[in-house]
Amino acid sequence: MYQLKNLEDTIAAISTPPGQGGIGIVRLSGKQSLDIADQMFIAKNGTKPSSFKSFTVRYGNVIDRNKGGSIDEALLTVMRAPKSYTKEDVVEISCHGGGTALRMILTLATELGARLAEPGEFTKRAFLNGRIDLAQAEAVLDIIQAKTEAFLQVSTHQLKGDLSTELDSIREQLMDIYIEIEAIVNFPEDDIDGNVGLSLREKIQRAGQRVDALLQTSEHGKILKDGIRIAFCGKTNVGKSSLLNALLKTPRAIVSAIA
Fold first, then answer.
1. SS3 state at 91
2. 221: helix, coil or strand?
3. 62-109 pLDDT, tens per residue?
4. Fewest beta carbons less than 10 Å away: which of 139, 185, 222, 225?
5. Could you tell me which of 26, 121, 122 has the C-alpha nearest to residue 76?
6. Whole-number Å distance between alpha carbons of 103 and 13
7. pTM of the model
8. The Cα angle at residue 27 between residues 25 and 31, in degrees rounded to 5
9. What are the DSSP E strand ranges found in the chain?
């Protein structure tokens, strides 16, 4: 069974894709983030990250005091709890995007007290700390994996909380119905309007219609996310390749008049 690791730990991870690039980011989250940053980063003006205001960026160098040298020039961003993605103290070190520099900075962070984050642990902490709900946590991964603009737009709305807002509204509607039913059951001696049953039935039906409407969009969502597999079938030289090229608006398949 999956076990949650200590949420009091400070976690660290490389937050940019592997490979070479102009910029790479190492992210830390947890109570020790600023203390660790103080030990491994020297700002150009000599100030420590723990003295930075929240949502500020400073230029400086990442240093390994034990080895006595600079690892890389970097920009360090501080986001203090609770106004951060994980609702914890968060530090982001933006250095050059070479794999060696990123690995050295991450290794140094772990040597100074952080542990390697599990896959998705920053988002998991955001969820467990009440920063986002489960639907929004799933939307984060959907945005990262989005292959089309349409699905990206859907995922963005979900991350903003549109789905969560609708679900909360339906839940409140059902709770109101439940309270009415419980009052009728617990206080049968009270005079009850004869139309109450009809009213409750209509309310339940309306709630059911809202749930059905959400379920009907799920199939459309799957299509936007996963796409549709299509096979072009037909005899030789009937135009399958020409049709494919027309749909893609690019000469993807070889076209020939010779069978």
1. strand
2. helix
3. 999 888 889 999 999 999 999 999 999 999 999 999 889 999 999 999
4. 185
5. 26
6. 9
7. 0.71
8. 160
9. 11-14, 21-29, 41-43, 56-64, 69-79, 90-97, 115-116
